[in-house]
């Protein structure tokens, strides 16, 4: 009893802490404002698909970055060679390398020696560029290490600039994170029109000062002015970099009252500016922003103190934005938008309502089923499941995670799968009771026997989920996090809380009493009988192979209905009152969008507009979305756009590659784990069967016309976890029976193992099905790509464990026997006995 009470105290403390962590998420603001921040900060955030807002994925223009780096190096080398009186042709500069062609080939070795001083890493170590002299030319190529460091530094600097620009713009709590090697993800809650943000973040704000060209200027450039047709001839050499600007603000000119930008230089910049103006009185100094001349005043006197003004017929808004850009600093390279997703606040609130409703209904159906099957013992399982839900939200709060719509789907699925552990435990206890064991002994044996199965099945599921997190993006990662937390908390509640309550109840029973857990009598009779499942092994394998081959054929023709994540392009939900499809189609055709696919969607006057993949430049500018909005508002002034998604070619290609890698690695992960835990033929049987399950699910996607998007990928990986979970339960019983009766014929042993786990298989499938049905029926298009394939996958995954995986294990096991190999790895006890015998 001491162990019971100590466990009760420890588990109670963990549960209390978990539930208290979940509490701030449901308390009203009037209450939380009176509580300490360390407590109220334990809250999870709502994803943009639930709260509404915009999501922009920006990519640093690496080509432009490398070109600028090479141009700077070319200028340094040119200056140094000029001082040495070594004459060369203008250096050829590209994003991949530089080429120096000397006018006197005899001096190539001298040039190479000088260039070496510029390509060394100033911090020591290897050279930043490699040199290759051939055909009287010197080629300078950046090393891989230098290119990677250049990209990394540019992304880190861009993150700081983007964060400062958005913070100063007054947006509420933007989320800015690095994504991949050259991407920046910006999430903006509450912003349903990101066009201004596009402009703000798409402006490099690279500011330079150039003197107007004169007779003494050796190298000149042409620069466009602010008005059309206005062109300036400037010295190519940069006289002062914009990085020396310390501060900039909107002020009004004392001369004419027009808005101007007042700037202040740092100490070094003030010194350089003073010297520049002292030596060039009477010359025009052009202020160039992103290759455009803003203004080019004539210097009348020496300017000291490091202060100046930029005027240029600005509006107040334009001057204020320019000041903001200068304060935040220039981006090291342009940022291009490669993905944009926008969800209106109304659509977000509808998603929350739908997610909560379908989740609650699914949970209630599962709880009712457990109560109906196991009676009062089912109540303990139901309490465990309810507690599990509270702990999931508690962990989400502690982690400060973001809850998305797929995340809600993950929680609902984890509820269905969490029941599996409780069903395994109850069925194991019932088996021990039927063997005549007293209540406490049966309880202990049931938990011990169920423990390894629960551990194996959950770890295999977590392998698939972890890969989904590694290769997924945005909301799909939210699904992976929610599902992983659900699996881990369910292991804790089923093994600790459920056992604690069951032990407490058993202690109230007479010592010699048997523990009676009800079930379904017809299933019990089946489980106690000898069903020859393996008799249908040839039919099962043949039918499965035919269906899988047919599904592969469907994959190629007519093919999957790819969503925007994989096909790229633009998808917009349009609410245009008092219109019809033909009006909308004509309006878009008039704007040049004849390729737009339009379908009625949801309520009246509600449409889904799709446009095929566009080039990276169109995606970066966002011009397509603005033109569509303009066309729609021309025919319906009250039109709104609840959802906008714009995906460029790079993103769709990356998603496709990540999906393939995730599924392949999931297969290898399962194979490796099951190989370690069982034997290679068990692992291979499970992996091959999962491959057959996946191909048939792909066929379902084609026949049902379900869109294949990132949510569908989440369904496939969740299905891998679920399917292998089911197979592990059967394999675990096979392993157990092999160790008890190693001489029994394999066919008979497999039939007994499948039959004895039949009740658990049926119950788990039913509960998972019940948890997902409300989402599939009422979840809408947002989760249809997850819920519908999962329902199909549950049926396929359950049946394949019996009719596909078991026969493959049998045939491969027969092959091992002919080679004189054992069916299982030696257990720890067997290894110890062998060691004892040797000693």
What does this structure look like?
With 839 residues, the protein is α+β, with helices and mostly antiparallel strands. α13 (405-434) packs antiparallel against α26 (758-778), α24 (710-740) packs across α25 (746-756) and α25 (746-756) packs antiparallel against α27. It is elongated and about 110 Å long. Strands 7-8-2-18-23-20-22-21 form an 8-stranded antiparallel sheet. It contains 28 helices and 23 strands. Among the domains are: 62-142, Alpha-Beta Plaits (2-Layer Sandwich); 207-330, Gyrase A, domain 2 (2-Layer Sandwich); 525-561 and 650-839, Multidrug efflux transporter AcrB transmembrane domain (Multidrug efflux transporter AcrB transmembrane fold, Up-down Bundle), CATH 1.20.1640.10; 569-647, Alpha-Beta Plaits, CATH 3.30.70.3400.
Helix segment tally: 28
Distance between the termini: 39 Å
Mean pLDDT: 83
Low-confidence stretches: 831-839
**CATH uppermost class of the domain at 525-561 and 650-839:** Mainly Alpha
Name given to the CATH homologous superfamily of the domain at 525-561 and 650-839: Multidrug efflux transporter AcrB transmembrane domain
The CATH topology of the domain at 525-561 and 650-839 is Multidrug efflux transporter AcrB transmembrane fold
Which percent range fits the helix content?
55-70%
Give the helix/strand layout.
Layout: H1 2-22, H2 29-32, H3 37-40, E1 45-46, H4 48-51, E2 53-60, H5 62-83, E3 92-93, E4 98-100, H6 108-116, E5 129-134, E6 137-142, H7 144-168, E7 175-179, E8 183-189, H8 195-202, E9 207-211, E10 220-225, E11 231-235, E12 240-241, E13 245-252, E14 259-265, H9 267-279, E15 285-289, E16 292-295, E17 307-310, H10 316-328, E18 335-343, H11 345-374, H12 376-399, E19 402-403, H13 405-434, H14 439-471, H15 475-507, H16 521-528, H17 537-559, H18 564-567, E20 569-575, H19 581-590, E21 597-600, E22 606-611, H20 616-621, H21 623-635, E23 640-647, H22 649-677, H23 680-704, H24 710-740, H25 746-756, H26 758-778, H27 781-818, H28 828-838
Parallel strand pairs: 1-19, 10-16
Antiparallel strand pairs: 2-8, 2-18, 3-4, 4-6, 5-6, 7-8, 9-12, 9-15, 10-11, 13-14, 14-17, 15-16, 18-23, 20-22, 20-23, 21-22
């Amino acid at each position: 009893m001491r162990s019971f009470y100590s466990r009760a105290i420890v588990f109670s403390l963990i549960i209390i802490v978990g539930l208290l962590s979940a509490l701030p998420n449901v308390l009203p603001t009037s209450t939380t404002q009176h509580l300490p921040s360390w407590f109220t900060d334990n809250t999870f955030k709502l994803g943009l698909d639930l709260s509404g807002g915009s999501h922009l994925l920006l990519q640093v223009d690496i080509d432009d970055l490398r070109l600028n780096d090479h141009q700077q190096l070319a200028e340094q080398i040119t200056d140094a060679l000029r001082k040495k009186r070594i004459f060369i042709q203008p250096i050829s500069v590209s994003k991949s390398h530089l080429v120096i062609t000397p006018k006197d080939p005899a001096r190539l070795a001298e040039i190479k020696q000088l260039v070496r001083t510029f390509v060394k890493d100033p911090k020591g170590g290897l050279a930043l560029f490699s040199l290759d002299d051939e055909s009287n030319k010197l080629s300078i190529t950046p090393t891989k290490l230098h290119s990677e460091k250049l990209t990394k530094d540019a992304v880190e600097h861009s993150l700081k600039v983007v964060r400062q620009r958005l913070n100063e713009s007054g947006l509420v709590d933007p989320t800015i994170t690095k994504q991949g090697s050259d991407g920046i993800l910006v999430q903006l809650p509450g912003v349903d029109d990101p066009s201004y943000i596009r402009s703000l973040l798409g402006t490099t704000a690279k500011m330079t000062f150039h003197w107007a060209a004169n007779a003494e200027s050796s190298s000149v450039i042409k620069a466009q002015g602010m008005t059309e047709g206005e062109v300036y001839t400037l010295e190519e050499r940069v006289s002062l970099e914009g990085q020396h600007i310390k501060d900039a603000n909107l002020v009004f000119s004392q001369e004419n009252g027009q808005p101007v930008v007042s700037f202040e230089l740092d100490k070094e910049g003030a010194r350089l500016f003073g010297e520049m103006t002292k030596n060039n009185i009477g010359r025009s100094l052009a202020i160039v922003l992103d290759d455009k001349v803003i203004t080019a005043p004539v210097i009348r006197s020496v300017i000291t103190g490091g202060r100046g003004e930029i005027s240029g017929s600005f509006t107040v808004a334009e001057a204020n934005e320019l000041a903001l850009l200068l304060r935040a600093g220039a981006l090291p390279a342009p940022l291009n938008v490669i993905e944009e997703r926008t969800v209106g606040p109304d659509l977000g609130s509808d998603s929350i309502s739908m997610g909560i409703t379908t989740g609650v209904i699914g949970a209630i159906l599962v709880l009712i089923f457990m109560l109906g099957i196991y009676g009062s013992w089912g109540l303990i399982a139901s309490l465990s499941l309810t507690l599990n839900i509270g702990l999931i939200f508690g962990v989400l709060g502690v982690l400060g995670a973001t809850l998305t719509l797929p995340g809600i789907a993950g929680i609902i699925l984890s509820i269905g799968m969490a029941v599996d552990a409780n069903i395994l435990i109850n069925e194991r206890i019932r088996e021990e009771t039927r063997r005549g064991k007293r209540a406490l002994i049966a309880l202990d044996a049931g938990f011990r026997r169920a423990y390894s199965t629960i551990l194996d099945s959950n770890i295999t599921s977590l392998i698939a989920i972890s890969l989904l997190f590694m290769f997924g993006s945005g909301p799909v990662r939210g699904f992976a996090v929610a599902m992983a937390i659900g699996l881990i908390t369910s292991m804790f509640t089923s093994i600790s809380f459920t056992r604690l309550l069951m032990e407490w109840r058993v202690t109230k029973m007479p010592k010699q009493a048997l523990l009676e857990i009800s079930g379904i009598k017809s299933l019990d009779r089946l489980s106690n009988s000898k069903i020859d499942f393996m008799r249908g092994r040839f039919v099962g394998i043949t039918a499965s192979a035919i269906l899988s081959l047919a599904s592969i054929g469907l994959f190629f023709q007519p093919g999957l209905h790819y969503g925007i994540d994989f096909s790229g392009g633009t998808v917009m939900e349009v609410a245009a009152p008092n219109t019809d499809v033909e009006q909308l189609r004509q309006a878009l055709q008039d704007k040049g969008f004849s390729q737009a696919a339009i379908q009625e969607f949801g309520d009246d006057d509600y449409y889904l507009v799709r446009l095929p993949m566009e080039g990276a430049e169109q995606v970066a500018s966002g011009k397509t979305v603005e033109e569509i909005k303009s066309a729609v508002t021309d025919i319906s002034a009250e039109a709104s756009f609840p959802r906008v998604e714009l995906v460029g070619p790079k993103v769709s290609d990356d998603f496709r590659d990540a999906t393939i890698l995730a599924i392949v690695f999931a297969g290898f992960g399962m194979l490796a784990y099951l190989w370690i835990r069982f034997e290679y033929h068990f692992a291979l049987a499970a992996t091959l069967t999962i491959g057959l399950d996946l191909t048939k699910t792909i066929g379902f996607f084609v026949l049902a016309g379900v869109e294949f998007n990132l949510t569908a990928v989440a369904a496939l990986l969740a299905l891998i976890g679920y399917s292998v979970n089911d197979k592990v339960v059967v394999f675990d019983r096979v392993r157990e029976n092999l160790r008890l009766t190693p001489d029994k014929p394999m066919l008979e042993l497999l039939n007994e193992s499948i039959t004895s786990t039949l009740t658990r298989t049926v119950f788990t499938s039913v509960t998972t099905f019940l948890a997902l049905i409300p989402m599939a029926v009422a979840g809408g298009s947002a989760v249809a790509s997850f819920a519908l394939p999962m329902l199909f996958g549950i049926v396929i995954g359950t049946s394949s464990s019996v009719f596909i995986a078991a026969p493959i294990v049998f045939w491969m096991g027969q092959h091992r026997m002919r080679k004189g190999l054992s069916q299982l790895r030696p257990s720890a006890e067997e290894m110890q006995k062998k060691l004892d015998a040797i000693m």
